[in-house]
Specification:
15 helices, 327 residues
Length: 327
């Protein structure tokens, strides 16, 4: 504990020295969330950092999140404490490039391999459906956003789809988010076959088991879960939506269908309520790579700066701005 205290003290000193703001995603380790200036969803954090008077943004999350911060704050230095903290789902789609194969997901060998078909890219699916707008989840790399018409979050995906002209859209990269959105709109959704390995592992039987074990609990599920799970949930929403619902609901017990990192904030903000994970192995190893020592090293050495080429940044920001213009 003394060593951790020393590390935290040095982080806070360096944060002041560098004029830095520390961001932590909801799925980060408890101790990283505890020292952050802001904790939240990826885009929410990037937007907050853009409005803060600072020189440096330290983003405790995964690569596409740091890229989003750079897109919205190009004049600031954005540091990703763990440079190999990637998002497997974001890596499942490319604008162009060679075959990408996931044989396992950061040690979860039981998950089926996702094969990025050789030669099949975002530009290919656009060419197969000329003129259709591309709705891109914020959980994607900057170059994919730049090749898209508009971005979306898990909270506003239906509103974004409904805002577009025509009766068909391309929705990338999460097949589960697309399947859920398809139940909420009359538009035809052409979906990419990507997924989040943390949410996709949950089955309908897991949801039924949670019901049996916690019959009085409200079951909340993230829309990155399979449709069979979402159909059994009481409330389908993003991580921020789960926080709001848990805080405003009269219920005192909840089953949480998302990465277990959110449990820290749920319990902290709702001390009189009880929260159970839908599955105890809903853990993203990439989100857990960032430790206090990672943050300290990044600030001490100003390491692992993330920047987006200006031509890509401008186009990606346009896709994000289009989303933000929707009321």
């Amino acid at each position: 504990m003394e060593e951790q205290k020393r590390i935290i003290e040095e982080i806070l000193k360096l944060k002041d020295l560098r004029r830095a703001v520390l961001l932590a995603h909801n799925y980060q380790r408890d101790e990283v969330q505890e020292i952050a200036d802001f904790v939240g969803d990826s885009l929410e954090l990037s937007r907050k950092a853009a409005g803060v008077d600072c020189d440096v943004i330290v983003f405790c999350g995964v690569n596409f999140m740091a890229e989003s911060a750079s897109i919205l704050s190009p004049e600031k230095t954005v540091l990703l404490p763990e440079p190999d903290a990637n998002c497997p789902m974001a890596d499942m789609i490319r604008v162009e490039g060679e075959r990408k194969v996931w044989k396992s997901f950061s040690g979860y060998e039981q998950q089926p391999a996702f094969v990025f078909p050789h030669g099949y890219t975002l530009r290919d699916i656009k060419a197969e459906h000329p003129g259709l707008p591309v709705v891109t989840y914020v959980n994607t790399t900057a170059d994919v956003k730049a090749e898209s018409d508009i971005c979306c979050t898990s909270a506003n995906v239906v509103k974004v789809i409904e805002s577009l002209p025509g009766s068909e859209v391309i929705c990338i990269p999460d097949r589960n988010l697309s399947a859920w959105a398809a139940t909420k709109t009359d538009k035809k959704i052409i979906s990419w076959d990507g997924f989040c390995h943390v949410h996709d592992r949950v089955t309908a039987e897991d949801a039924r088991r949670a019901r049996r074990e916690h019959p009085d609990a409200v079951l909340m599920a993230h829309p990155e879960c399979r449709l069979e799970v979402l159909e059994l949930a009481d409330h389908v929403t993003s991580t921020s939506g789960m926080l709001r619902h848990a805080g405003s609901s009269d219920a005192v017990e909840f089953v949480v269908g998302t990465e277990i990192g959110l449990m820290y904030r749920l319990r902290k903000e709702n001390p009189g309520k009880v929260f159970h994970p839908l599955r105890k192995d809903m853990i993203c190893p990439n989100m857990k790579k960032t430790r206090l020592t990672s943050v300290l090293t990044a600030l001490r050495e100003m390491k692992h700066a993330i920047s987006v080429p200006e031509d890509v940044r401008v186009r990606a920001k346009k896709a994000l701005d289009r989303m933000l213009e929707i009321k």
